[in-house]
């Protein structure tokens, strides 16, 4: 016998049922060619009714083949006498009813009968082999236990010991894990692989446990619908797509990347999950049940690190803009989860809470597509870095927060902090009127809120969430208030009609309204004055963006006007454009700037008469054109 002849080989095998009186032969499988080598665990898999049991019985010689040859170690099975075949080939069937009075050792000892004489009596040498077989399957402690007292897993181990006691070169097992729990199934398949390798056995096991077979088996025989036999390693068959073709159904499909079955892509949309290696598949599985399909974009594709800092994820390959992308992004965050959907970031303490919420989000998505799609931190930081070059008011740093920086929320929640800032502003402006200082401080902070938000929206179709708990500021004696964040959420704009509403919600509702309330708790200022300042700050951002990036002027002016039409900015003033590309603001309330020593009137002043204003505009336009 040559090395190539070892193992079990199918040569044009046709398996089925021979002709009987009144019935012609029925071919279940035809023309099968495959090899199960020694020292390897070969798993025979296939859908119900594919013919696995029929093929296994034909290989064992329990059912005659209709054509072709089954060879064991180069010898045709049908040419070997039964007793001699039993010394070459052992078979473990799914046996539920075993002799009740036998012990585990006696059951394993039945495997020695092909080697005993006429009496069937076991010699001392036979006994040693039975002991070895029981120990090999880790069943030595079961020796004296009655078979009726064994668990299903213990019984299967003893049956494998019986097969080993035959000292065959090949073992065939038909659904040995059928009645076992998960732990026992894994243990038995691991045992069969170990025995194949350690004893140089050919082991072929039929199983319906596809996922376990693909992880444990060295080789796979896949009986596909139509009787086609695909043979190869688990990885080869997976890569060829034959696993999915054979087993995909209406509800479940085979995922070649993970090697497991997953729910078919739902109608809830696409979700990107950022979590560690343990939680990520759990999150994806839970969300899949609610109709969400995982995003195909990898961390590497999105330019992300292994420890992402934001729940908002990729909307396209490499973080580039797409017209569509993941509608939902979920991130593991400490002992909870963050979910980003259509402009909102929601925190959940438990996975069931997240899953229940995601079901409602999926229902909402089916009713109407989201206006905003979550963007990657890389995309957000890139957009912020770009608009930071426009001017100091547009600058927003992203990185490590060092000592000396305070959360922006402190300006709203700590009266002492805001009071100190108003006092510092009054000192810098050389005024004793805290109302004037508070008014100008509010306008300066409003400009810092509007500028990076407006710039990212106009230049990159990206909405940045300036979370007051994540954005930090640092006290300076002059110039724009420095702002910095460790990371920022951001959204790709899928529906341009939602930009103004969302930007208003972020800047006005989320930042300026609480700041205005805090200012008014410190100093008595009319709301109209503060919101006039906020509108003037917005107009200043539009004007700066138009001057530095003239190609964005039209979009900036249009968005500015949309924002000025929303309360509480409505009726604060008008964003005029007396010449194309030159927006100017006319406010309807005074900012008190003229109350400063030598302050005079600001460019938006409500006190300037129309003729003087138009003359100033014309001069500004001429100077701007000359500068170009």
Brief overview:
It contains 19 helices and 26 strands. It is of the alpha/beta class.
Strand tally: 26
Nearest-integer average pLDDT: 86
Low-confidence stretches: 298-323
Tell me the Rg in angstroms: 38 Å
Summing up helix and strand content along with how strands pair, one would put the structural category as alpha/beta
Distance between the ends: 92 Å
Q: What is the helix fraction of residues, given as a range?
A: 25-40%
Percentage of residues in DSSP E strands = 15-25%
* Count of alpha/pi helices: 19
The major sheet is characterized as:
6 strands, mixed
How are the strands of the largest sheet arranged? 6-7-8-3-9-10
What is the number of independent domains?
3
Principal-axis shape equals: elongated
Helices, strands, pairings?
Blueprint: E1 8-17, E2 26-36, E3 40-45, H1 52-59, E4 67-72, E5 75-76, H2 82-88, E6 89-92, H3 104-109, H4 124-136, H5 152-165, E7 170-174, H6 182-199, E8 202-206, H7 210-216, E9 219-224, E10 228-232, H8 234-240, H9 242-247, E11 252-255, E12 260-263, E13 269-274, H10 279-289, E14 292-294, E15 328-333, E16 336-341, E17 344-348, H11 351-367, E18 372-374, H12 377-387, E19 397-398, E20 406-407, H13 410-413, H14 415-429, H15 434-460, E21 462-465, E22 471-473, E23 483-485, E24 489-493, H16 499-522, H17 527-548, H18 553-564, E25 573-579, E26 582-587, H19 610-627
Parallel strand pairs: 3-8, 3-9, 6-7, 7-8, 13-14, 13-15, 19-23
Antiparallel strand pairs: 1-2, 1-4, 4-5, 9-10, 11-12, 15-16, 16-17, 18-24, 20-22, 21-24, 22-23, 25-26
Helix pairs in contact: 4-5, 10-11, 12-15, 14-15, 15-16, 15-17, 16-18, 17-18
